From TrEMBL:
Keywords of this entry: Membrane, Transmembrane, Transmembrane helix
Alphabetical list of PROSITE patterns matching this protein: MFS
CDD domains: MFS_MMR_MDR_like
Keyword Transmembrane helix: yes
Cellular component annotations (GO), alphabetically ordered: plasma membrane
Residue ranges of every copy of the Major facilitator superfamily (MFS) profile domain listed in the record: 16-454
Species of the source: Rhodoferax ferrireducens
Name of the protein in question: MFS transporter
Places the protein is found: Membrane
Pfam families named in the record: MFS_1 (PF07690)
Transmembrane segment boundaries: 20-41, 53-71, 83-105, 111-129, 141-162, 168-187, 207-225, 231-251, 272-299, 305-323, 330-349, 355-376, 397-418, 430-449
Length: 461
């Protein structure tokens, strides 16, 4: 796929960034707004906690499963049609949810949303790689990260405001005019490049096995099937996952145009980047349980627990935007080191409960800054520069997959560690000591990255 640079500051540049940022914001917003909607869904459809968990699982699984196929299709057929299809699917899922006459239609709508959402962010990142010159990519990817972070943070209060003034249906109906605007502007602004010449057959076997592999992973980590059926099934899904992984690798090695080129993992820098992305996802997901320390150790009321994380939220936005602006100057390696160092300090300090609530609030600030830095675009930049040009979309899709898997693992691991460490705040303190140790490990592994990406070296030459 050829690459044509769009100069910064031009009308074409502004239109393109608007299309990408609004799409990413819409997708991230609906990832975050579901938590305040759950009580309303429980009341309207008369469902229990086990059933309501399907709303989140359907989105996670469909998003994970669609990311690599849609990213690969973007490499094959061009970014514009895949981005537009992803936005359309997301809007369709929103409409299905808003008009759902039953709970299972809500689950179907979330699954459709997830399929569309799985293609939005990696395709947007690949468009930036294709359309912008190297010196502009870091800032643009940083702004993508900041957009995602702001949407994730603003989602719950915005959802609460809509539910107070209107009702839960409007949270999803609001996506329709936003998607329509993105589609209208995207038809004019998105580049239309696509590979030339005949294309090999689509890797259907790889797609099917990857979906089964990710389904087994989600079922093992969340134990959703165990809860729904009242049986111990996670050992079987774990065995399925262990068997499917080598099968997937075997199939991909023999595909004419594989869904996930295994050869990319022979690149040491790229393999290390994906492992660090897994760690970044773990660090990002670990934020969720910080409110448990606030309630258990400092007596903060559950309804007010979210407010204690506001300093962390502000720091996350600052970290993400600042890292994007500094990426070309400092290099991805330096920023990732700084991000994991901040996460190590912040989570380690959060585990110490002897300094009162104000000490806890201060401890969450480096956590927010660190999350903002590691998701700002530095890891995506390395994936862009190290991956073959024909697989840029796939490389960005893998960033999303590893981030999501890390987030899933964090939820399961912290809960298990907290239960093992004892009741109340003591258990969570021990869990966050382990998290801090893992972030130190990620910091040490980051030293294996090159000091400068090839693109930055070219700029300096």
């Amino acid at each position: 796929m050829s690459s044509a640079s769009i100069p910064a500051g031009t009308p074409a540049y502004r239109r393109l960034m608007t299309v990408l940022f609004i799409g990413v914001f819409m997708s991230a917003l609906d990832t975050a707004i579901i938590a305040p909607v759950i009580p309303a869904l429980r009341e309207v459809f008369q469902i229990d906690n086990r059933q309501v968990g399907l709303v989140m699982i359907a989105f996670i699984l469909s998003s994970l499963s669609s990311t690599a196929p849609l990213a690969s299709l973007g490499d094959r057929y061009g970014r514009r049609p895949i981005y537009m299809i992803s936005i359309t699917l997301f809007a369709l899922g929103s409409l299905v949810i808003a008009l759902a006459p039953s709970f299972w239609m809500v689950v179907l709508g979330r699954a459709i949303q997830g399929i569309g959402g799985g293609g939005i962010i990696p395709t947007a990142s690949a468009v930036i790689a294709d359309a912008l010159p190297p010196k502009e990519r870091g800032r643009a990817l940083g702004l993508i990260g900041a957009t995602y972070g702001m949407a994730f943070v603003l989602g719950p209060p915005l959802a609460g405001l809509v539910m107070v003034t209107l009702n839960w249906h409007w949270i999803f109906l609001a996506n329709l005019p936003i998607a329509a605007y993105v589609l209208y502007l995207g038809a004019r602004a998105l580049p239309s490049q696509r590979p030339e010449g005949p294309l090999p057959p689509l890797d259907w076997r790889g797609i099917v096995i990857l979906v089964l592999l990710l389904a087994a992973l989600v079922a093992t980590v969340t134990q959703i099937l165990d809860d729904m059926m009242g049986l111990t099934l996670w050992p079987y899904t774990l065995v399925a996952m262990v068997l499917l992984l080598p099968l997937f690798i075997w199939v991909e090695k023999r595909a004419r145009q594989p869904l996930v080129p295994v050869s990319m993992f022979a690149n040491r820098q790229l393999s290390l980047t994906y492992f660090l992305t897994l760690g970044a996802g773990f660090g990002m997901g670990s934020v969720v349980f910080l409110t448990s320390i606030a309630t258990l150790a400092y007596g903060v009321a559950r309804e007010n627990a979210g407010f204690v994380l506001l300093p962390m939220v502000v720091c996350s936005i600052i970290g993400s935007m600042g890292a994007g602006r500094l990426l070309n100057r400092l290099g991805a390696r330096t920023l990732i080191i700084a991000g994991f160092a901040l996460l190590s300090i912040g989570y380690g300090a959060s585990a110490l409960t002897g300094f009162g609530l104000w000490g806890f609030l201060l401890a969450t600030m480096p956590v927010g800054m660190g999350v903002g830095v590691v998701v700002s675009g530095a890891l995506r930049t390395i994936a862009i520069e190290e991956a073959p040009l024909a697989f840029r979309g796939t490389a960005q899709g893998l960033i999303n997959i590893f981030t999501s898997v890390g987030t899933l693992l964090s939820a399961a691991a912290i809960g298990a560690l907290a239960d093992f460490g004892g009741e109340g705040a003591q258990g969570f303190s021990m869990a966050y000591e382990v998290v801090a140790g893992l972030m130190v490990l990620m910091l040490l592994l980051t030293l294996g990255l090159r000091k400068h990406t090839p693109a930055l070296e070219t700029q300096k030459a």
